[in-house]
Amino acid sequence: MNERVIQIVRDAFPQLIEKFFTMTIPLTVLSFALAMLIAVATAMIQYAHVKGLQRLCRIYIWIVRCTPLLVQLYLVYYGLPSVGIYLDAFPTVVMVFGINEGAYLAETMRASMEAVPSGQMEAGYCVGLNYMQIMGHVVLPQAFRTAFPSLFNSLISMVKETSLASTITVTEMFRQAIVINGRVYETLALYTEVALIYLAFCSLLTVLQRWGEKKLSSYGGVR
Amino acid sequence: MSMLEIRNVRKSFGDNPVLKDISLEVNKGDVIAILGPSGSGKTTLLRCINFLERADGGTLTLDGQTHDMHSARKEEIVAIRRKTAFVFQNYNLFLNKTVLQNVTLGLTSGRGMNRAEAERIARDALLRVGMLEKADAYPISLSGGQQQRVAIARGMATGPEIIYFDEPTSALDPELIGEVLNVMRQLAQDGMTMLVVTHEMEFARNVSNKIIFMDGGRVIEAGPTGEFFSNPKEERSRNFIRSILNKE
User: Fold this and answer.
1) Fewer Cβ neighbours under 10 Å: the N or C end of chain A?
2) Is B94 within 8 Å of A123 when comparing Cβ atoms?
């Protein structure tokens, strides 16, 4: 590798990292938080068999899961303006990612809630708790525990999916690399650099997941 | 006047009638054993009384207030449950809570008690069932007998007027049954009103003061324990006792 390439990679690094921390991570955190909110609400509605709303939830999950994320992103950012709805790029990404991931996480949460033994619910009633108290103290905490590895999976996916935001003009880390590359044209080196930053961060998350699972297992079996 | 009165309870699962017009009365301090062969409806009866199953008909009178067992409203049911406790065959301790939290949850969240007071009561209840030293353990690390004793403490702590036991020892290894029965015996001696679905004949004979014998979804015979065992009136009761005695 010649010196010029090394210099380019070195110069690019702080710019990429800056975008990573100011755009990629905030996008991930906000989108994932929104996705979790939607997921828990959707899962609870289905778990409780709320008539009408339950149907709505199924339709939501059906549509979102059966259309590509990139198409959804284009539809909202480039499509909606033709009916007079203009949204900034950043909130569009958060909204679309949140709604998209929410549908998948809703299924994860629902399955985990249904895996909580029915006796837990009955015991809750018998000690005088109401439905929402049982949810908050007993069912949801146990469901989160079961869902934890899957939720983390989705979080790691989302870190990488934020690179799609580059297609609708959000200058997150990957778009920053595209911009730099347009100037210096060192495609292989720059995109490898970006890939390595994603790899490093997602590896860190993987370690965090293992640690979290160990922490949570204290009431699951191994002490 | 009786403390708890159940009148004409009916319950079917699909086309299968499980409870056919059951009535019973419980007085304060009674320890009533509900006996009968498998499938006689004992457990369903208990579950209907605490609204874990909705009866198709019947009334429940607790503390002089009568409730329709089929159409009771949510608030009525919550109010009834706060006066009772239920011990399950498979314990059903909250798996994500420590032993102590299992006992306090019904007091703090269920009854709005402050934490310090709830913990004092919970520790006292755990002491009475011999589980205080495990206060910070999670249920999964306890034996079945220990879990069931915690479940009983959880029931006692809320100060119920009556505790329902649904085959509390049926899921236990034989060597663990004794510790649970001892706790129940102590509870009975302390004057707790108890309604116990059980297969433990020793317990029924020595601890309960009344027997309700069920078969085929009906109460076949109900009366004082001594009479039931020494002089059963009904043919089916006699057969049941004979089969039990042969087994023993």
Assistant:
1) N
2) yes
